[in-house]
Amino acid sequence: FVYFGAGPAKLPTTVLERIQGELLDLGGSHVSILEMSHRSPEFMKIVDDTVAKARKLLNIPDNYQVLFMQGGGTGQFSGVPLNLIGRTGKADYIVTGSWSAKAAKEAEKYGQPRLVAPKPATFGAIPDPASWSLDPEASYVYYCDNETVEGVEFHFVPETNGVPLVADMSSNIFSKPIDISKYGLIYAGAQKNIGPAGVTIVIVRDDLLNHALPITPNVLSYKVMAKENSLHNTPPCFAIYAVGLVFDWILENGGVEEMERRAIEKSDLLYNLIDKSNGFYTSVVDPSCRSRMNVPFRVKKDEKVEEKFLKEAKAAKFLGLKGHRSVGGIRASIYNAILPEQVSRLGSFIEEFAANN
Ligand code: PLP
């Protein structure tokens, strides 16, 4: 079976096996990672090592903190404005899908977020950067690098004229090299590309640690978390440990450069099949911003045919292909842990289904 769910998503099989093998006794400690104190030297080493691996994989400069937080991506919809909007009270949002729209809405509780371009009726394109109205006084410019639901991904870094850039990379972090120095802050829930649900990684530049609104809860405060090495309170220990193992797997498999090469190969395969299917399969996303992680498509634009597609896919051992409840259709999520050979097998099924229907 291959699981193409959007998140929580497939983890590398070797990582799951390793977790299974050391679940009762982590490294000769006679204690399970599920039981171990977060203040123990063993666990503190796991935190330090996992940060070091993240720094190595993404070449994170020294003037950025790497934090492990809780509350998921949704927690950061509040965490970002709580920590950053205090500088001027204003923030700019580039809205290209459901998740950035939700983030902009949540920010209204803490200041004055503004959309840099009108929100389209349906998502599937990035508004032309030449048309964005950016406020030089914004505390930050926010965008979602990969919209998981609609399958819209930025293949460029937005230019903000010196205003700190904030990115939600929940569904594409560690799938490509990133020039961290172009960002003020990047965050990502772990449950797609880097581990189980429960931990959210935040990469934040040092100079942005000092603008939090006084009401910022300590558990969402970047400054508090940075000062206490992500151990202000009991962290999601198991999730952090598992993220460390996934980082090892990425390092052993050629790093983020190889993840990007595979992502291009896997997504090209699926989009080519869709485009050459004479309208049997359709993608509503503009080719310039099609996601390499989430490939949503319709089958004959017909829900009945899509139900049949999902049923036959399951019988062929392909799981988790149902589109997000808000948009319907089919969605193949092809994060790092999905191997090119597995996408190639899905591609054969997609071709056969079209031929038979
Ligand atoms: N941002 C993106 C891009 C997502 O895909 C998701 C969830 O799928 C979220 C934010 C929300 O994350 P969470 O469910 O961890 O709150």
TrEMBL record:
It is an enzyme of class 2 (transferase). It catalyses: 4-(phosphooxy)-L-threonine + 2-oxoglutarate = (R)-3-hydroxy-2-oxo-4-phosphooxybutanoate + L-glutamate; O-phospho-L-serine + 2-oxoglutarate = 3-phosphooxypyruvate + L-glutamate. GO terms for cellular component: cytoplasm. Pathway: Amino-acid biosynthesis; L-serine biosynthesis; L-serine from 3-phospho-D-glycerate: step 2/3. Its EC number is 2.6.1.52. Keywords: Amino-acid biosynthesis, Aminotransferase, Pyridoxal phosphate, Serine biosynthesis, Transferase. Residues 3-346 form the Aminotransferase class V domain. The keyword Iron does not apply. The keyword Nucleus does not apply. This is phosphoserine transaminase. It comes from Allacma fusca.
